[in-house]
Structure to design on (366 residues):
């Protein structure tokens, strides 16, 4: 038996602030921020001389333990699972499609502990709730990275090629687990950090990004309602296929492109006006499509927040709905007390998560 190796992998959560739905179509752009909320995976590797490979995953946040065996034909057998977890199973099966990985893992024992750090959950009325910052994508990326580290497919220094391999396999596994083809922006943000997203020939690419130095993002948590992302997406896409949708969609697209350009150029002055336009456009989209991407109940909160000193913009995050909204604020100028008071009257509070523009971090602990 080889001496044990212990690795640590950290993956940030995400917030898609611009580009919702648009990043599914060519020619459009988006902005996704990586957050201080991070998933940490600790990997312990032991090589064995005989017997099947074993992968044991434990996580109090995911709700238990999963043990998989890998035979010499690279077939995965479920030995124990606290509950079905398609993200773990699909990630393992996807990584095993690489012959070099399969030959290594079939005679290796892995112990992986997965922990979601502060920011992914909040307490309300005595119950724990998710914030919507992407635990499924961070877990998938961290787990895929651990499997590749164990098989010597990647290592330290953690190169650009290593990141690309992790991102590619994690996106494939994440899509397979959800039985749908997403854009992959959440995985890209976790692996690379805050980025500007662009779509060319149906392929999503990314460039590094940070908010302008004088701006910060404030994220919401709480509220009494939640939304289903697949339902939102299905409703909006059905509307997009209807005759007469193009004019409104083009106005939304142009506003989005102007906001992305302003943030990339660190031009703060036009943001407030553009975000006011965005709220009205998203409300029109919501009503026209019947999707609820911007619920009527949220509009007063966002509009009132926009009137507070130091706030330059507000919007719903990601696919929209009730799950999360945000405010962009000027550091040192915004009135935190007024934002907290306003949001609390509507059942929301401020998340402790903030932008942390770095991506995945890999360390060899022993």
């Amino acid at each position: 038996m080889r001496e044990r190796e212990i690795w640590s992998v950290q993956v940030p959560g995400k917030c898609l602030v611009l580009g919702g739905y648009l990043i599914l179509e060519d020619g459009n752009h988006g902005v996704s921020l990586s957050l201080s909320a991070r998933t940490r995976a600790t990997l312990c590797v032991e090589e064995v001389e005989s017997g099947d490979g074993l992968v044991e995953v434990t996580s109090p946040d995911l709700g238990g333990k999963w043990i998989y065996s890998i035979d010499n034909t690279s077939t995965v057998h479920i030995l124990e699972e606290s509950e079905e977890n398609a993200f773990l199973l699909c990630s393992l099966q996807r990584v095993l499609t690489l012959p070099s990985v399969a030959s290594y893992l079939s005679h290796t024992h892995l112990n992986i502990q997965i922990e979601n750090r502060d920011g992914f959950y909040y307490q309300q009325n005595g119950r724990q709730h998710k914030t919507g910052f992407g635990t499924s994508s961070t877990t998938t990326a961290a787990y895929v990275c651990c499997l590749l580290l164990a098989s010597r497919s990647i290592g330290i220094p953690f190169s650009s090629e290593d990141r690309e391999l992790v991102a590619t396999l994690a996106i494939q596994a994440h899509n397979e687990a959800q039985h749908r083809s997403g854009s992959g922006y959440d995985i890209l943000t976790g692996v690379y950090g805050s980025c500007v997203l662009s779509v060319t020939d149906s392929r999503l690419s990314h460039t590094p990004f940070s908010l302008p130095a004088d701006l910060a993002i404030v994220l919401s948590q709480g509220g009494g309602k939640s939304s289903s992302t697949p339902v939102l997406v299905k409703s909006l896409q059905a509307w997009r296929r209807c005759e007469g949708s193009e004019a409104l969609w083009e106005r939304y697209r142009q506003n989005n492109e102007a906001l992305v350009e302003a943030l990339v150029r660190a031009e703060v002055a036009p943001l407030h006006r553009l975000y006011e336009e965005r709220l009205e456009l998203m409300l029109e989209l919501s009503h026209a499509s019947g999707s609820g991407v911007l619920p009527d109940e949220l509009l007063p909160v966002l509009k009132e927040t926009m009137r507070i000193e130091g706030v330059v913009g507000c919007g719903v995050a990601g696919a929209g709905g009730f799950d999360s909204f945000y405010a962009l604020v000027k550091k040192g100028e915004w009135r935190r007390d007024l934002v907290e008071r306003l949001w609390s009257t509507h059942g929301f509070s401020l998340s402790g998560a903030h932008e942390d523009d770095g991506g995945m971090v890999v360390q060899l602990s022993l």
